[in-house]
Amino acid sequence: MSIVKPRAPLPGEALPEVENNPDIERQWVVKAVAHSEAYFKLINAVDTTALRLTKTVFEKMSVDVISEDQMKSAQGKAVWGPFMMRFKERVQDFNFLTMLRVDSSKDYSQENTIVVPRIQFLAIEVARNREGKNTKITSS
């Protein structure tokens, strides 16, 4: 049995009209939870403020608490869409749906998790790590 990799629609793509398949949803949840657990172990294992990563495109975006509404607004899509497409050929599964903590000071939970394309997850978490936003959660 292979795992189906759900992906977010590319900018300008219509959402596919499909029925939710509970088996596929369970497979995705297992994979997404494994990814979030691995990431959480990683940020607990290293001093993330020492990483040499930069926040370029989203200099003014606060990464402490993410606004899903702002990210999915017309203005948010206008910025995120071109940013994401730059990584289409460079980051494997760049648009694979990935769980992101809304509030960087809190652990993964149903209330503190949204689903975003992987490249959004990476961009936000890179910025959080560089700014030391994950130190509160990793020190507890």
From TrEMBL:
Source organism per UniProt: Planoprotostelium fungivorum
Name of the molecule in the record: Polysaccharide biosynthesis domain-containing protein
GO cellular component entries: cytoplasm
Annotated TM spans: none
Domain Polysaccharide biosynthesis, chain residue ranges per copy: 24-137
